[in-house]
Amino acid sequence: MDHLTRINLDHWHDAIAAHGYTPEQINDITGDPYDQWTVARKEITHADQHVPFIYQHALPDHDDVRAWADSLTAASRKQSAGRITTSVGRHRSLLLLGPTGTGKTHQAYGALRYLAPTGINWRWTATSSADLYAALRPRAGVDSETEFRRFAHARLLLLDDLGAAKNSEWTEEINFRLINHRYENQLPTILTSNVLPKELLDRVGDRVSSRLIEMCDRIVIKGTDRRKQAAA
Ligand SMILES: Nc1ncnc2c1ncn2[C@@H]1O[C@H](COP(=O)(O)OP(=O)(O)OP(=O)(O)O)[C@@H](O)[C@H]1O
Ligand SMILES: [Mg+2]
């Protein structure tokens, strides 16, 4: 997409209206490659390409998730004040906990979709822990450190299913290095884990859980397994 191209907003009306904008505004071609609407169109296109199919209509219907996204937006606007493009700023992270199927990943991608029309350059990266380990596994022709930095330095990162895979010393080291980098630099991160708060320490260990507790707004998604409900 270039900055002169209108985009299809068929399944974006709710996310756009949530910010008080209209689809016509988003598709307002001003010719300026840096204006708010151009950035919004780029972000919506990024989301269309990277949000998994079943979450393509997701929005954060959990109030606390939406509040976190609003706070991130406000902080990013403030920290970018005066610059031509408005980019994601330093901010607290979000930790979504709860049993299988309650909607953690839905809220996470919902938050990313909700952020898209704001006119801020998010350019988020998303991965599950299992995919992260697969991407970092040493293999010929791939520099694992370069791969690691792609996640560690992402401006906004979704790390889904932390602590779901079986731990080894190697996965523990990856978790620690990644979370520690995000923690020390206050890089906003959305994390999900299918445990209850009291089980977190057991799953990810002392040093990771201690950092998560300090750096994150923690939200427990309650309810039953929505997949079983849907099947019933
Ligand atoms: N708020 C919601 N509105 C509509 N559908 C939802 C909502 N939350 C979740 N769902 C649907 O319920 C199912 C389970 O949601 P999701 O994948 O987010 O669960 P999860 O908590 O991430 O589960 P797991 O721990 O297994 O990863 C999906 O089909 C999802 O689309
Ligand atoms: Mg999930």
Short description:
The chain is 47% helix and 10% strand. By secondary structure, it is an alpha/beta fold.
Q: Into which percentage range does the β-strand content fall?
A: 5-15%
Count of domains:
1
Span of the ends, CA to CA: 42 Å
Percent of residues in helices: 40-55%
Q: How many helices?
A: 11
The CATH class assignment is: Alpha Beta
Q: For the report, how would you describe the main beta sheet?
A: 5 strands, parallel
Shape: globular
What's the CATH topology name?
Answer: Rossmann fold
Could you give me the name of the CATH homologous superfamily? P-loop containing nucleotide triphosphate hydrolases
Short key terms for the protein model shown above:
232 residues; Rossmann fold; 5-stranded parallel β-sheet; 11 helices; 5 strands; 47% helix; globular; binds magnesium ion
Q: In terms of topology, how is this protein built?
A:
Blueprint: H1 13-17, H2 23-26, H3 36-50, H4 63-79, E1 93-97, H5 104-115, E2 125-128, H6 129-136, H7 144-152, E3 157-160, H8 169-184, E4 189-193, H9 197-204, H10 206-215, E5 216-220, H11 226-231
Parallel strand pairs: 1-4, 1-5, 2-3, 3-4
Magnesium ion binds next to α5.
